[in-house]
Design goal:
481 residues; mainly alpha; Helix Hairpins; two-stranded antiparallel sheet; 5 helices; IF_conserved; cytoskeleton; intermediate filament; cytoplasm; coiled coil
């Protein structure tokens, strides 16, 4: 084509100037359309309107006609190629617009997730408040249990004091019972001794009575013998008889006194001993009754002591059971509280990690978008060649080739940057990202080199799953690691 334009330009005696006018209209955010003649259909392929100005004399009309035919054919081929390339660029622009819309949707989703995270924080705060209230309630119950325990300890101390008092009373009663037993034993021994003395006195009285009877019999025998002799010797002496009568009366009185005196003494002594034995028996009976009363009181005190000991043991068991139950409840609630707090801390840490990953991803996207915008602002639109009017077909071809290389290089740089950012995020989170690269968009020829241009689909710059989705799947057990 270049050699054809050169031969036509050299062979022509006049300057043939051709200009192509490309009209730029807005067909959406980044759409392009060429001004085309009415003969071209509206199927998407466009042609350019050519304006030719002839400045040669009429003598070379035939040559110009020939050159015009050749130029029309070459222009048609050039326009066809331009239309093909332009359609590819429009597809690229549409893909980029779709990518931008997806990025905006992701940004909105991130904003919603931030709002949801604040609501999760409020939910955690509410749960922490409930747990604090439960902990305060358990603390109050523990304080009440401690107070009940103190009251039970006071009751136990009071019962222990009463038990000690009863034990002292029991010891005193036992000592009194031992003293009474000793006194009863002494009384029994005294009675036995008195019985022995009574037996000895009875034997002595019998012996004295026998001796007295023997003496009286001897005296009576002597008196009778003397009376017979006196009667025989001096029957005439009456005064002797009276004297003997008096002596006999005296002896009888003396004998009667001698006979009644031991009996009276013995009777008095027996009465005294009987009275003493009766008083001792009354004292012994009173002592026995008192001992029986003391025994009954001691038995009642022992029964009461056993009852108090059983009550104390039951209270001790209730206290220990209450302490164990409350301690188990407190331990379980504390363990549950710590477990919930640890789980909430883990969830909060995971949310922070997800937030950091999303912030890194957003920062990477923002940096890429800002870099792309800065490059577009500083270097001009990659499609700026459509806004200028070309003065000649050589200038048109040179600028087309240059602009094509710029667009392809910028697009490849964008793809490389996005791939590097995605790989960095994947290495940060230990997640494998998958890049799906589409087919070839076209081939640019510059000299003898062939440069392949690849276009990106939407999934090439986005991971299969966001970090938040991967975290949810990991928590649900679908994936691990």
């Amino acid at each position: 084509t270049n050699s054809l334009f050169s031969s036509v330009h050299q062979s022509s005696s006049g300057l043939v100037s051709m200009s192509f006018m490309v009209d730029h209209h807005n067909m959406g955010p980044s759409s392009y359309r060429k001004a085309r003649p009415a003969s071209v259909s509206s199927s998407g392929f466009h042609s350019q309107r050519r304006r030719l100005t002839y400045s040669q004399p009429s003598s070379i009309d035939s040559l110009e006609t020939f050159n015009g035919d050749m130029t029309r054919r070459s222009e048609k081929e050039i326009l066809q190629a331009l239309n093909d390339r332009f359609a590819g660029y429009i597809d690229k622009v549409r893909n980029l617009e779709m990518h931008n819309r997806n990025l905006e949707a992701e940004a909105a989703a991130l904003r919603q997730s931030q709002a949801g995270r604040t609501s999760v924080g409020e939910h955690y705060e509410r749960e922490l408040g409930d747990l604090r209230g439960l902990l305060q309630q358990l603390t109050g119950e523990k304080a009440r249990a401690v107070m009940e325990h103190d009251h039970l300890e006071e009751d136990i101390q009071h019962l222990r004091g009463r038990l000690e008092d009863e034990a002292r009373n029991r010891d005193e009663l036992e000592a009194a019972a031992r003293a009474m037993k000793k006194y009863a034993e002494d009384c029994r021994l005294a009675r036995m001794e008195l019985d022995k003395k009574l037996c000895a006195l009875e034997e002595e009285a019998d012996f004295l009575k026998k001796n007295h009877e023997e003496e009286v019999a001897d005296l009576l025998a002597q008196i009778q013998g003397a009376q017979v002799s006196f009667d025989m010797r001096d029957a005439l002496k009456a005064d002797v008889t009276s004297a003997l009568r008096e002596i006999r009366a005296q002896l009888d009185s003396h004998a009667s006194k001698s006979a009644t005196h031991p009996e009276d003494w013995y009777q008095v002594r027996m009465e005294r001993l009987s009275d003493a034995a009766k008083s001792n028996q009354d004292a012994i009976r009173g002592s026995q009754e008192e001992i029986a009363e003391y025994r009954r009181q001691l038995q009642s005190r022992i029964i009461e002591l056993e009852t108090l000991r059983g009550t104390k043991e039951s209270l001790e068991r209730q206290r220990m059971d209450s302490e164990d139950r409350h301690q188990d409840d407190i331990n379980s609630l504390q363990a549950k509280t710590w477990e919930n707090m640890a789980s909430q801390l883990r969830d909060y840490q995971e949310l922070l990690n997800v937030k950091m990953a999303l912030d890194i991803e957003i920062a990477a996207y923002r940096k890429l978008l800002e870099g792309e915008e800065n490059r577009i602002v500083s270097g001009g639109s990659p499609y700026s060649y459509l806004d200028s009017r070309l003065s000649g077909h050589m200038k048109v071809k040179g600028e087309e080739i240059s602009d094509t290389v710029i667009v392809e290089d910028s697009f490849l740089n964008t793809f490389t940057s996005l791939s590097i950012a995605c790989n960095a995020i994947a290495l940060k989170k230990k997640i494998t990202w998958t890049d799906k690269i589409g087919g070839r968009a076209g081939v640019c020829r510059k000299g003898s080199n062939r440069k392949q241009i690849h276009t990106l689909r939407l999934s090439s710059v986005r991971p299969e799953h966001s970090p938040f989705q991967l975290r949810e799947r990991e928590k649900s057990g679908e994936i691990s690691g």
